[in-house]
Structure formats: C-alpha cells, structure tokens
Amino acid sequence: MAAEDYGAKDLSVLEGLDAVRKRPGMYIGTTDSQGLMHCLWEIIDNSVDEALAGFCDDIVVTLHTDGSITVADNGRGIPVDKEPKTGLSGVEVVLTKLHAGAKFGNSSYNAVGGLHGVGSSVVNALSSRLDVEVDRGGKTYHMAFHQGHPGVYEDADAANPSPDSPFKRSRKNSPTELEVIGKVSPKTTGTRIRYWADPEIFNKTAQFSYEQLVDRVRQTSFLVPGLKITVVDESIAETGDMAVDEMREVDAPSVVESTDGQDFSTPVAHVPSAQPRTHARIEEFLHTGGVKDFVDFLSTGEPVSDIWRIQGEGTYEEETQAVGANGELHAQMVKRTCGVDIALRWVNGYDTVMRSFVNIIETPGGGMHVDGLMNSITKQVRKTVEANARKLKVNLKDSNTRIERDDIMAGLVAVVTVRIAEPQFQGQTKDVLGTAQVKPIVTRMSDKQFGEMISGSKRGYKDQSGRVLEKIVGEMHARIQSRKAKEVTRRKNALESASMPAKLSDCQPGNDDVAELFIVEGDSALGTAKAARNAGFQALLPIRGKILNVQKASITQMLSNKECAAIIQVVGAGSGQSFDIEQSRYHKIIMMTDADVDGAHIRILLLTLFYRYMRPLIEHGYVYAAVPPLHRIALAGSHKGEYIYTYSDDELAGKLADLEAKRITYNDDIQRYKGLGEMDADQLADTTMDPRTRMLRRIRMEDAEQASKIFDLLMGDDVPPRKAFIVDNADDFDRSKIDT
User: Fold this and answer.
1) Whole-angstrom Cα distance, residue 517 to residue 513?
2) Is the pTM of this model over 0.90?
3) Range with the lowest mean pLDDT among 412-416, 676-680, 722-726?
4) H-helix or E-strand containing 94?
5) Number of helices and strands (H, E) in the chain?
6) Element spanning 130, H or E
C-alpha cells in the first residue's frame, strides 16, 4: 500500500467485547490451560468478593459432564434494575462492559480480589455460551449470551442447555430484557453463572485441572473463615446413598476439612435407599480458624512452637482518584483501614514456608506486608537474644554471632494477610504489594504482639519462646560453623586434609569431579575397605554404630553429635539453608553398611541427616547406597576358582537351582557374610567398591513434600501413625523393594 493511500478508512475499531476475543492474551495471559483456569478464578473471585463484603457464606462450583462450569453463591445477586447512564440492566452492564462494576465507587466493596472490573465480561466474551440467573426481590431472573452478545437460546431440552442450540441475538445497542423464570422467597438472593469455554479461543491442548481448582478453593476457604465452598464434579461417579438430583435437594454427605488438613466424611443427612446409588464427587471446604488453620495445614515436621497469631487494624491516608456524580475523575484524600491477620509457627528443619496475601490475592513476591513483619521479627528476636545471651550461650563480644534473617526463617511457617481497599501492586502480575502505608502498620502491630510472645512476657509463651530462640541460635551457630568449614575444608592441596577429622582416610587431591566418600559402618569394615579402595579418588569415613536421629533432635543436638558434625565437615558444603552443592568435596556419597537390619537402620538415619540438613545432595543425585552381597558360591570342577555372589535368600535358592539344572558343581560350604568386615579386600572391591564391578543404588527424591511426610511418619516422635502405617501396609509388603 502506498503511503498516500493510507487513511482513516484503513483503521478498524473493535467495539465492546470484540477486542477481548481478538487479543485474549491481554486479559487472561494465555489461551492454554492457564488461561482456561484463569477464567474460572475470575468468576469464583466475584463470589468470594461478596463473602469478603459480608454478604455471602456459601459458594458451589459444579463441573458438568458437557465441560461447562457453574458457579453459584448466596450473595446479594447482581443488580437487575436499570443502570442510569446506559439504560441497560445491571446484569448486562456487568457481563458486557469492560471496567464496569461496584468496585470503583468505594461504597460496596472495601477489600476485594478483583479490581479491574473486567473479570465477568472477559469470561463472557471468551465463552461460546454463558447463562446467568439472579435471585433478587422474590424473583429469579435469567439472561443468556453467545460469545459475549446477549440474546435468546432455543434449547430443545431446557434441563440440558447447549451452546449449539439455535441463538437469536438481541438488536445491537438495544437493551435486553431480563427474563423472569421463577419465584423465590424475598429473603433468597444469589447469583448463578454457567459458562462453556469457547473452543475457538482456547488451544486444543488446554485442559482443566481439578487439582488446581481444589487447591485454590482450599486456600480461599482458609482466607475467608466461615465461607463454605463446595466442589461438585459430575464426571466422577462415587457410590453412596443418593443420586445427584437427590443430593441437590438436601444437605448431602460431604467431605469437610478439619483444622489439621485431614479429610473426613461427615454425613449431614441421608435419604433412605435400599440399594447404593451413584452420585457425583463432592468436596466441601469450610474453615473457621482462618490463617491459623492454614498454617497448621502447611506445617510439616515436628512443631517447635504453637501457632502464634498477630491481629489488628490500623488506618492511613491515601490520595486516590474518585468518580464524581457526572462520571469524571478527581483526586481526593481518603482514610483507609488496613486489617492485619498473621499466623506463624516454627517447626523442626530448615525449610521456610511463607504465604502472603492481599485480600484473597496471593503475593508470591511478598511486598510491604511481608517486609513489615520480617523487619519486626528480626528486631525483636535480636533484642531478646541479647537480653538472654548468657542463657542461650551467645558471645555478644564476637561480632560474628549476630542473628540474621536466614536464621529466623529456617523452619518458619507463616501466612501473612492484609485487607485493604484498592491495593497497589508492583507490576501487572500482582506478585508484590506496593502500598507503602501497609509496612509501618504491620511493623508496629508485630513489634507489640510478637515482641510479647518471643520475650515470654505474654502468659503461656515462656517455654515456647525458649524453644524458638534455641532453634534460631542453633541455626546461627550452624551458619557460622558452615562458613568456617567452607574456609578450611575446601581441598586445594594435601595440607588441607590435616583439618579434617582424624578418622577420615581422604583420597588424593585433584580428583574433585570424581571423588567418592564411603561412609563405612565400623572399624573392622574400615580396615578391609582401606585395602580395597582406590586411594586416588575414594575416601573413607567410619562411623560408630547408629548416629543421632535428627528428625527428633534439635539443630543444637545435631551439631553436638560427633558423627553428624564429622559428616557435615567432611562433605564441606555446609548445612541447612546455607548448604552450597558447588562446595561439596565429593560427587558420590556412598553409604556402605552391612546387609542386615542394623545396616538398614543406619542407612535410614544417614538419609534423615542428608534430607534434613544437606538435601541438595539427594536432589542432585549425589547420595548412593552400596549393595554388598549376602552369600558367595564357590564353583567347583571345571569352573573352580569362579565365584557367584547373591544378595538375598531367594536369589541364592534360585541360583543354586539354576546351577543344578546346568549340572555345574559347587562347594556345599556356601559362605554367608554377616558383615562387611568378613570379606577380604579383593571380595569387597569386586562386589562393593570397584566402579567396574560394583552395584550401587542411587537415592532419588521425586516429590519433596511427599518425602517430608514420609520422614515425619517413619522417623518422628508420633508413634501411633507409624504403627498404623506398618499395620495397613503389611499385606502389601514387597521384599524386593528394600535394599537388604
């Protein structure tokens, strides 16, 4: 096109929701699975905003078999009267006009999750069909839309609406009358939106995630105490006392989450039935404890303290743009209220779980509310440690013994929430809260309330604060010790080995990329291993018996244990949060223990140490278990001088049967090893240490959360769950899956 031919006629104007369909990524990010879920969050969040405003306490999300989704609430219902400026009903304004809603006038909503006023209208634009029903004033109103445009569907079966039904679009720029389809009690209010995501918009690979829905719903139920959210999945059949239709008419058996995060069935009402019937999967989420329940749900490991709560309100002034009577914007100073609700506890271990929210919006990047809390906690902990330095064995004259934020964060589980009107965020993704006035409010509130708890001046907190301070000081000592260990243990020349434990038989320097550390059970095995190893790249560290179970011990107890401290020092990469995998002196850490029950116990104790304090070793595949044999078969006859090793009684029986079938003779005196020390050097090298002939088992961790739960179950202090686990799984025991 020539430049002189370019004019206004070449410009195109997209009106209403057409712009959303043209550029959906601007509104929902992507048109894949993430965008599909985003649409659902927009509709759910509108209902949650009604709950935050105090007008809704029940939300039901239904996943239909045809792929559509219904979100129903018992809030006030979308307004059905005429909006003066457009002459359209409130329902049509909300669902067809961008940046329209009650969240701009500072009157109906004081703390909301959605601020832009585009959620419902965007979902409408990106749906092949959307139906809305509103209960208000004793009537039920209905309106339908096709790709964002209002009109009327002619469904062959009213009970089974379809986006493929014939559709008559309303005349352009003409208001669509709301259809009255029923009567309700004057006190009954609420909104129900059912929509079908448009396949013309979303990728074929876009998939709905039930797990994401449940996680988000559970999270919301924690953040809005007293709000019941029910998820009904009609595509999953379960056996029970009621059919789906019957369940909708009465309170159904539901799955309720307890405060400790465990699910349990609670029969609320039953319809008598001679035969079990199939009904939809239903999960119900209701928490009255708020963020306290949330912290309890997020906590793994042995608790060091109870859940501490910081709550209150503060006010601040802010300049904002207000909407005038004629729709114009003007600046004005307004007084805001900031509600603060924080729950936190410390657990054994060094992982930090910090979740922060503004209203119901998660802020993964933190922001002013998190900064205010951490500044206060750090200040109050340092103050209390200094006041109790002698009791905590802290040398204040040493400039290195200063509590750092990382020491406090180790093992901390916290949920930080604030509720404010019109929050400001850094960036479009709402990851970081930027409202600066929130920080001093949270700091002042935390200074007073947390200060009383950590100092023990608040009744009932003295013992807890003592345990927390001991843990934090232990983390500080571990960090300092780790730094010193890095300075003196990084092997650059042979002289550095002198700083290692005397019992370490180190390998030659210069082979860092292939260096192996064998942790050997007992001195007798050490003597054989010294003769069997390749001293060029294989190091040996003996341990005496069973090391400390660090799952049950504090970090101070762990550091005081000679065996644990020696292992951390020899590996040379630190411990806890300061662990640096790049500083590890060995690329293989091999647990070489006897092939018996005691050997298996020592291995699991070592694994507990690695998992709790040197987890990157497992994550990077540095940890292995040696697999020593149990038996040695000496062949006879023409095969004299040859040996076969077996690793279990079943394998021995099978191998002997195989030899007899092949008519290969062997000595009847089959050697059974009771321990590594019974092998001579050649046997130990061939079976366990020589990379050319040995067999190792690499320890892997595919799911960190599941691994943490397993360690808590098998190695923690709580005996009844461990006993129940053993009993429940006894019948499924598979000996081939264990390394004994």
Assistant:
1) 12
2) no
3) 722-726
4) helix 90-96
5) 22, 25
6) strand 127-136
